[in-house]
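Pipeline run #58 for the internal structure catalog. This entry was flagged by the ingest filter as a single-chain record with no existing model, so it goes straight to prediction. Upstream metadata was stripped on purpose; only the residue string is passed forward. Reviewer on rotation: M.T. Logging verbosity set to normal.
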Amino acid sequence: MTGRLTTHVLDTARGCAASFMRVDFCACDEPPATVTLDTGGRATLLEGEAFTPGDYEILFHAGDYQQHYGAAAFFTIIPIRFTITDASQHYHIPLVLSPYGYSTYRGG
């Protein structure tokens, strides 16, 4: 079984998923790739052979997303760095977002 890296963003101010937010991600020694979250605020970032142990970073473009909906954009880009130790597992990195705060954790 191969692992995968997924994300999900919830907008607590609007009470819904952060649909269509731009997210950049990469292994820390590689150039970033960009995805746009789906209508449910979700995306699979890596899976299969591309998913290997190492240090990774996800950049959530929260400022552009919040400005699109007329909200304050205090956090413009939210960087999350983490280490993958077992590439056979599912790593889920959700972000819970509000205009002046955010929270994240490792789901699975």
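catalog note: The longest strand covers residues 90-98.
catalog note: The mean pLDDT is 93.
status: ready for reviewer M.T.
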